[in-house]
Amino acid sequence: AMSIESMQHREFDIGRVISATFGVIGRNFAPFAGLAFLFSVIPQALIGWFSRPGGELPDTRLLGLFSVVAIVGGLLTMMFGWILQAALIRGAVDDLNGRKTSLEACLNTAVRNLGPVFLISVMMVLGIGLGSILLIIPGLILSVMWVVAIPAQVIEQRGVFTSLERSSDLTRGSRWPIFGLFVLYTVLSWIVGAVVVGIGTAVSGGIAGMATSAVMQIVISPLVAGLSALVASAGSAAIYTELRMA
Length: 246
What we know:
- The chain has 246 residues and is mostly helical.
- It is built from 10 helices and no strands.
């Protein structure tokens, strides 16, 4: 990988971003997949196990406790997701800059940025959600403007509001191609989702005693969630690097 300092690109290039995304995943597949499995697949699989058909607690007196456990589990899953995203972004940006990194460095960066990443995520959800409720278009605009807010925080340590502003500055002049990437990612996600549902149905049909929905909840859906988190984090790092090069 060539460093940002050694490359000068005048325009945002979708093909370059896609190539960088899958290139960084390929070069770091083992550690990145391990992080995704630990912080995404396992938590999602546990949630799927407890919410599987027939997995409900039979004693209605324990429903309150079950609800509390479900809420705590959901919050922990979101926290793990933020840690995973920050760790993968740190590792991906280092790789795209031609630097070697370690799992320890990635996790240290993720834990150190957990608070700011959480606040940025909340701001993005509120802003994009409100914009989508109003006219949809403002929500899409904010999604594109803030696409690299978390990488800006993880790499540049600018703070919550400054990272959102930094993302807006970096994406200025490149928002249409970034929107094109969003559309492409959405279409590919639909296709992959349809294929996964078909595979999950076929696999569960061949396993005696296991319902299709149980296999989807415990195995297939967690794996897809982990893969999606991996691609999305590497993709945001690639977009951020490409914007820095522009």
